[in-house]
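Subgroup meeting minutes
Present: P.N., E.W., G.H.
Scribe: E.W.

1. P.N. recapped why we're keeping a running log of single-chain structure predictions: easier to compare across weeks, and new members can see raw inputs and outputs side by side.
2. G.H. added today's entry (327 aa).
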Amino acid sequence: MMGLGGYGTRVAGAMQYCTKAKLVGAISGTPKKLTDWQDSFGIPAKNCYNYQTYHQIKNNPDIDAVYITTPNGLHHDMALAVAKAGKHVICEKPMALNAVQGQEMVDACKAAGVKLLVGYRMHFEPHTLEVIRMRKAGELGKILFFRGLCGFKIGDPKQWRLNKELAGGGSLMDIGIYAINGARYMTGEEPIWVTAQETKTDPVKFKEGVDETIQFQFGFPSGATASCLSTYNQNNLDKFFLNGEKGWAEMQPSTGYGPIKGRTHKGELNQPVTTHQTVQMDEFSDILLNGKQPVVPVDGNEAVKDLKIIDAIYAAVKTGKKVELSL
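Output recorded in log:
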């Protein structure tokens, strides 16, 4: 695990229940975190590194893959270094700050002969997979519309998520990516155009280049459309709605840590409640070691598509114009 902050700790805790994956090493710039993790998770001291020494993982046969959970702005360089060390790369989303960086990560991993996976935990979530199954089976009929609402009221103004250099933006990078990715796996299509509008009510907290609220719209080849909202200034927003000619599906919460809840025109969704990170890491093990193909891709190419859309949304906000997309 590289980056032992809040999310890294959540993944580490969930991994204690994995049957195919095991946490064996840690990388951090904070010595106390490394000793704490050695105690908490039984990690050997010889498998702990700092940001100056982690290239030495190349010589450590205990480590197969590194999960990067540092701030967004650090992902690119760290992924390139891990790939160079010959280890598989798992990266938290958004994978990079823009599509150019993302493609460089894909190319570097390919050149190094390692796999690149991204922390799309919802791609393994049972309620989500059931809605995707229903859509693929034609139970909703022709898909007409998707709505994704993602947001929360962000706290500490000094945190890295509100730092343009480290975050790459604001709410869109952190929480809006769920609606972007969700629009794609829920409709089963790639958007061909995007429009977007930004609203900022607190320019002190949300400085230049750090978005507070963005509304964005997609058009798909079939004629279906999507309307989404990403914000750091409202709670109670974690909702997906998918509408088709024959039926509909609604999820709320739709992407939080759970339990995910949903219903369709046929009634409540009653799939098992899972710990997302436990399932994700076991599934990732099957992908890395056994070549398993997930229902919805979780590789670097999938992440580059989301980054191209993020680039297009920011361009649409800046120009006020519809931006054409080709993914």
